[in-house]
Each structure stands twice: as C-alpha cells, then as structure tokens.
Amino acid sequence: MLRKKIFSLTLCFALTLGICPVTGGPGTALASTSGHTAHPIGTGASFDNNPLKGFVPFDGSTTTFPHSLEWFYIPVRDVQTGMNTFNWSALETRLNAISGRGHQAVFRFYYDYPGVSTGVPQFLIDGGLTMRRYDEPADLGGAGYCPDYENQTFRTSMQNFIKAFGTKYDGDPRIGYITLGLLGFWGEWHNWPYDEDTSDGKPNWNISNTVYNEVLTTFDTYFNKTQLCVREPKAGVPNASANIGYHDDSFGYATLSSGAGGQTWSFVQKLINLNQQNKWTSNCIGGEVYPPDQSTIFASTPWKGSTNQTWAACLSEAHPTWLMCEQIKNYTGTTLANARTASKQLGYDFQVAAAYYDNLSSSSALYLGIDIKNIGIAPFYYDHTMWPVQIGVKQGGTLVKSWTTTWDLNTIPAGASVKTFEHTVSSPGLASGTYNMCIKVINPLSNGNNLGFANAGQNTDGWLDLGSFTVGGTVPPPTGNITIDGNASDWSGISPLATAAGQTATSLKVTNDANYIYFCVQGSNLSANGQIFINADNNSSTGYVEGSWTDSGCDYMIETGTLYSHPANNNNWSWNDLGTSNVTVSKNASVYEARIARSAIGNPGGTIRAGFKDMNGNWELVCRLPASGTLPGYTLK
C-alpha cells in the first residue's frame, strides 16, 4: 500500500543486485529516458474487471456483473469470546469463501445492527453491560439493543479486539478494505434518532469524542497496510492525522456539498466542514449507492439519484473507489450497460503513455523506462510491498523471464499527469532472438482479478505488451560515429541527458560504444575550464558529494584532459590524478566534448550518472548542468 505509516525508502544498490529502480516526479519524464528508444503505447478501453474498485455486491451474491470485491457485515460476538480471547473461524470462513472466488473482501464488524440479534459479545452482557432497547419502524431498521459505549469495561474489550484484529489481519491479501464500524447503529458512527435532539421524546445516546478517539487511534495504530474507511469525520477527533478514509452510505442521495446543490448535512459537506474534502488523495473513499435509488439511478439519462444529485457531480466531489450496489445482480439491458460503464469510472484507471527500451547485445543491460498516468478519479492506494509491478520478457507469447520492481503505483496521482519509472537489470541472461517487453501488476491474491491498463496491448493474462526488441550481436557505435573535435554535428541524433536555460552550459549528452563513453556539453560563452563528474557505480554512498546534486557520489572527474578519482564519500576536494592517457577532450566557446575509456573507470555496465560544471579562468563556478536536483542517469548500451 502504503499511503499509511510505512513509506518506502528505495535505495539503489546498482550492480550488486543488478537492479536500479528510480522514480521521477509527477508530470515530468526522467531525463535519462531520453537516451533510449521511445515506444509510444496505444490507448485502449478501460479494463473491465480491475481489482480493488468498482461496484460491490454482498458476499455470495450470484451475479455475472464484473466485480472484484464482496461486502459483508460480521458481529463482534462471532469472534471475541473474552476480554483477550478470540476465535477467528467465522471471519476465516467468510474470507476464504470470497478469496476462493478470486475476490477481495470489504467488511465491517458491528455491535448493534437494527433488526438483527446483538453483536455484543456474551461475556460483556453476562458481566452487566447496560443494553438499551429500542424499537423503530422497519424503514429505520427495526428493534435492537444499543450498548453503553461509555462503559470502561466495554471500551477496554473493544480496544483489545481492535489490537488483536490488526495484529492478525493487517496486510492480509484476502482483504481489500475495512470499514471501522463498531460504534453506533450498523457500525455507522451515529445513534440517530437517539441523539441530542430529545424533542422527539427519544433519549440522547450520542457517543462521546473520547470513545470515537479511542477507536480511531487504535485502528490507526494497528493497521498500517490495509486501507481503512470510517463513516464520517467527527469534530474533536484527529481526522487529518489518521491514515483513514471515509465511507458515504447514501451515495447519489446525500453526497454533494450544499454549495453544489446538496444538503447541509451531506457526506461531502461534512468533509468540508472538518477540512477533509481532499482526504481522497491519500486514503480511500468507499460507500454505498443509496439503496432505494439503486434500481433506478442508471435507468435513464442523466444518471442521478432521487434528490437529483447526478452521478457525474457526485464522482467529481467525492472521488469514490468502491461502492456497494447489491442491485447489480438484477440489472438488464440499458441499465446493465450503464452500470458497467459507471463501475469502471470509480477509482484508479492506469494508462501507459510511452515505454523506453533498446535492442540489446548479448552482454547489454536490460533497461525499461515507462511513463504511466492515472486517468481515473482517485489514486491506487497500495504500494509495491503488497501490489508489485513486474517487468516481463515474452517470446512467442510465452513468458521467458520476469523481474520485480519497486515501482509504487500509489505515487501516481489521479488527473492524468505522467509519472516516470525506470528499472535496469545488469545481466538479463537472454539468448539471441526477438522478444516482447511487457509489464504486469501482481495481485497478492494468487487467483485474484488481473489489474489491466487502458491500453491496446493489454492481455487477459494481466501482461501489458509494450512492443518487441532484439538481443544479439555487438553494441553498435554511437549515433553518427562520434569524433572528439569540438563539432557537435555528429551528436544531432542523440537526445540530451540534461538541459537548462539562461546559463552558459545548456545541454549535456552522453552516449557509448563497446570501449568508450562520450560526453558533449553545448552552450554559449563556455569558459576556459570545464569539469565532467561521473558517478560510475550509480551509488551515492561512494565518491565525491556535490551538494547541489542528489545521487552524486562522483567516483571520477575529467578536468582539462586529465582523469581523476575520488577516494572517499565526502565533499573534500581531494582527488587522485590518474593521468591523461585514457581521456580525450576538445573544447571551444560553444562545445565541450570528451571521451573516456570504459576500462579506466572499472568497465561499468548498467546505469552511470553524469554532470558538468563550467569554471572560469580563476576556477570559479559559472554554472552547473543540471543546475540542481538529481544527477541524471544514463544506461550504457
């Protein structure tokens, strides 16, 4: 997942593991992809049955409507047998049945569900817990018993339950989402109409903020992987700091804010009142299509509920990922077609814009850069530790090899901005031949629904085809047969590794052949001196640390035709002179070219990083390229 407490810190161990994952910021492709062959990826229809999103029937519903989640309620008394004793078999039975159908579960534990037997554990009732009887009309649920939520013994037992629940089930691949439940009628965090308005003759059974806080913070502490939702934010409760989303139980009926034509007490208005309207960007929004409207909301155009809140407007304000809708099992004709479209509009929707990879020699590293965007209305909320992305190589339709990346899909924001990921395998071990490059998101539930991209090359087996490449032969010479002569015309077919405007050095290019690595800096009024810095092992924990560049760790430097190495991982200007025999340099006011023998810097493979400093005659800094930020990477061919 984790938009929750555990955030992934990805370290690149370069060639030691043969894998170097890198991610770039939203909306900007990484500079290093420009050194590779770009492959535009055709768009396609949104995948019909993506996991962790869409409409959700109750568990066991017989329906052919495409879905990946199943919903159920479960009483606490079915699992808690004492203050610190639990029998999870009832929950296991439900989870195993749902996962056996290839689906993930969404569910809620309750103590009080109007119209059915109490969910309060028997040991609490036997211990004297006050159980307040109510008997409401059928449209308000019917009869039941509301426990005294303020009772200290009850509160302790509830915290013990949450701790045990989280310890055992956090990150369970059978679970998609959990709604907090427990408090109030149906576990919906209210006891209406038994509230502060006693003019109706009903007592005030409101639950205190102390109890709300205890439940929220205990769930937040013991669930750090599985996404959580709660019915609504409460005043005086740490809504903003809790890694918990929300659940709209009347979607399409009481969703829109009052400013958008909804009620003053609607779901989104409550979020706005407590500054939670943007919680969807980090935590899941779930809910239920308002049950009385489920049969009609998709029957005609525009799709709208009985209060004239349109489907499109509700999506725009609430950004839900999943919605209970039991009536999908009864839809036919136009209503069915509309509902299938509506279900796909929920949550994330990934689309690959471009892939970057090359033909390989038998000894080349395999590199894949990829631009992914989320054209949906909400993020994907799980990271690579639960939902990893794999790179695959197929030949003749059969998977030959695959490698698991550390690409975090939850870092791709909704709104169609591009996120670029990279992965390098230094020794792919592929025999000569023609292959297809592909990627796949791995569902942690082994028989679960495949996650598909909205691209033409998406296959039903989950693999997205990115196109073909060849392996075999020797590495071709760099484009244009580079000559180190101060003339950049032979670099015209090579894309820049880094660019900048408003300074003397404006473009840095890198290429290579089997024996040499070539550098070209272009600009205007370049100074008499220049320095090329090289992080040859792609490891920032070795080499010279240049404070303006991240991922620097520069092991080597070319200065006035001489090669230097740096003996330590610090910013001390203390270099070892390696001489001039392995370096060729040519420079003038607009071009600085250099060539270095690969053997002189340890015969690197995979990715290196490079940067340039323009220095005047007094060895004072004129500019850097890149001016700041990440030292760009170049994958050797």
Provide an overview of this structure.
By secondary structure, the chain is mainly β. It folds into 3 domains: 23-45 and 376-471, no CATH class; 51-243, no CATH class; 488-635, Immunoglobulin-like, CATH 2.60.40. The protein is 12% helix and 30% strand. The protein has 7 helices and 35 strands. The strands form 9 sheets. Strands 25, 27, 28, 29, 32, 33 and 35 form a 7-stranded antiparallel β-sheet that branches. Strands 4-7-10-11-12-13 form a 6-stranded parallel β-sheet, with helices on one face. Strand 10, helix 4 (209-222) and strand 11 (227-230) form a beta-alpha-beta unit. Helix 3 (152-169) packs parallel to helix 4. Pfam families: DUF4832. It comes from Ruminiclostridium cellobioparum subsp. termitidis CT1112. InterPro entries: DUF4832. Residues 244-446 form the DUF4832 domain. Residues 1-24 form the signal peptide.
- The N- and C-terminal alpha carbons lie at a distance of 34 Å
Structural class: mainly beta
Work out the count of structural domains.
Answer: 3
Helix content: 10-25%
The fraction of residues assigned to DSSP E strands is 25-35%
Average pLDDT reading: 91
Number of helices: 7
Which stretches of 5+ consecutive residues score pLDDT under 50?
Answer: 1-29
Work out the number of β strands: 35
What value does the Rg take, in angstroms?
A: 30 Å
What best-fitting shape do the alpha-carbon axes yield? elongated
Largest sheet: 7 strands, antiparallel
Keywords: Signal
InterPro entries: DUF4832
Signal peptide: 1-24
Domain DUF4832: 244-446
